[in-house]
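Table 4 source record.
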Amino acid sequence: YYDSTSVLWVAILFMIVGGLPFSVFVAIFFTRNIPKLDPQVFTFILIILFSCTLLILYQNGGVAKSIHVNTEYIFNVVSIITTTGYSSGDFMNYGSLGPVLFFFLIFIGGCAGSTAGGIKVYRFIVLGQVIKTSLRQLIYSKGVFLLRYGNKLVDQDIYRSTVTMICCFFACLILVTLSLAFCGLDFITAISGATTALANVGPGIGEIIGPSGSFKSLDDVEKYILILAMILGRLELLVAMAFFLPIFWKQ
């Protein structure tokens, strides 16, 4: 059935719906009000459109391909960014751009307040504002700059937790990657396996755990490392890491 273009488009639609904030649907169906467009929703859709357009232009190379082939590209992009874990075709065969593009899409994830995993689009927006504000502060040392998310002011605790979360994610990524490499996995398999586990995406990059492969060939130790990484990623890293603090058990 997945050879059907219409089936793929139904899946694409509902994967995007699953990557949107749940508050949007609460506002529409329960309060009967159309909410103002959340900046993360706009950015989320923009990332999907940009990635799909880039991949289609790169793959087509000026030669028009069938609708189903282009739909397959869109399906795989949406599946990875929404951390749904489906695949239609092997994106490892999408030239040199495909694996690189999909590797970075693994990190992003859907919107905050959605069913998706990943770091979340919301945090990347806040991080971008932090960088923008820091650069302005560097140029105008006596200036006072407020951090905004859309039209709302962002409290220091919010952007502090955002930066902390992203730093914790990459710190855990390094530890899990080193652990998998110590077990004997190659660099691509180790780093993509660690990333896809922490982000709860599904397929990784490479011949072993890519969309045409599976995690079956990994040994038990490597699977237990990935199990721990998936649990940490799903629980939100800051909450999970709090269990390892001595002060948590003293209260």
